[in-house]
Design a protein that fits this description.
mainly beta; Tumour Suppressor Smad4; 2 domains; 5-stranded mixed β-sheet; 19 strands; 10% helix; globular; disordered N terminus
Length: 308
């Protein structure tokens, strides 16, 4: 829930073989080896999450639900057509307002937490942790985006996952690891966040982050996702977006402010899920987070976007 490059023909092999990362600092010298190792480990874990069975590369379908019944299975006559590994006629989703149930047809080996399912009311991600049901190599869950609901499908055999060849990243550059001044909003400011599927959500920003990058003062509004969240989420774009980096922006997390300061490390900027898959609902950067300066740090654009 914060999803995507001149070095991942190179960077994939760098991470897998243990070859040294490309490094630079404002003075052209290599950064502290401890920091270089931190970024290396961060990139490895990022790739592990992305490539996991539950990662975004495994996405294989996003099916919006109108009111009423939606048959599903691998047969093309279904309203929702699953991959070929699914039974031809697997079952039906029934949406009634904000309630969606799944009902199986005889012979469909649908399971939830290891137990067989014949009929079940689904809990969406808007209500906390969504219910994930299993059908062989396929898993699916209900997602809510505003007043819209969809079935999100993952497939362990997803061609997007199989064809993934890694992400190219900029060399580590310590000049893109900056200290920002935190200017709190009293009360927290509501900001509108649009998405790639046309929805608009209202999210809370606890304050602005103000910092200098490439000699220019910059200001961004981070999002704070709730009392249990120990981080700030930045959804941003910059002068490289659409060319060197992904056109719809990148994501970055920071720690919460300490003594009015926040470290913003753009070497950990990463592509949103929509950089890799068409089956996503990624948020887009708000206007105030469109940086006028180039941020040549973190992940570059992903050019191996597999077709659905």
């Amino acid at each position: 829930m914060r999803a995507r490059k001149s070095r991942f023909a190179a960077l994939a092999s760098l991470l897998l073989t243990g070859a040294p990362l490309l490094l630079q600092s404002a003075e052209g010298a290599a950064p502290d080896p401890t920091y270089a190792e931190e970024i290396r480990v961060w990139r490895e874990k990022r790739l592990e999450r992305l490539k996991a069975d539950t990662g975004y590369l495994a996405l294989a379908g996003l099916y919006w639900l109108d009111e009423g019944e939606h048959t599903f299975g691998s047969d093309p006559s279904n309203r929702i057509v699953f991959p070929a590994s699914a039974p031809p006629k697997a079952g039906v989703f029934v949406r009634q307002g904000a309630t969606t149930t799944v009902r199986c047809l005889p012979g469909t080996a649908l399971r939830y937490e290891g137990k067989p399912v014949q009929e079940m009311t689904l809990v969406s991600d808007a209500q906390g942790k969504p219910m994930v049901l299993e059908l062989g190599d396929l898993t699916f869950s209900l997602i809510a985006r505003g007043d819209r609901f969809a079935i999100r499908l993952r497939d362990k055999q997803s061609p997007i996952r199989k064809n993934f060849r890694g992400i190219e990243s900029f060399p580590i550059d310590t000049s893109y690891r900056v200290t920002a001044r935190f200017e709190p909003y009293e009360p927290a400011k509501k900001i509108l966040i649009a998405s790639v599927v046309g929805t608009v959500d209202t999210m809370l920003s606890p304050g602005a982050l103000v910092f200098t990058l490439n000699g220019q003062e910059c200001r961004m509004d981070p999002v704070w996702e709730g009392p249990d969240d120990d981080s700030l989420w930045l959804i941003f774009s910059d002068a490289t977006s659409g060319a060197e980096t992904y056109g719809d922006g990148r994501f970055l997390y920071t720690d919460l402010p300490q003594e009015g300061k926040v470290t913003v490390d753009f070497n950990k900027a990463y592509n949103p899920p929509c950089a890799f898959s068409p089956y996503t609902t990624c948020p887009l950067p708000p206007q105030q987070n469109e940086l006028p300066v180039p941020v040549r740090a973190g992940e570059k654009t992903y050019e191996d976007h597999a077709s659905p």
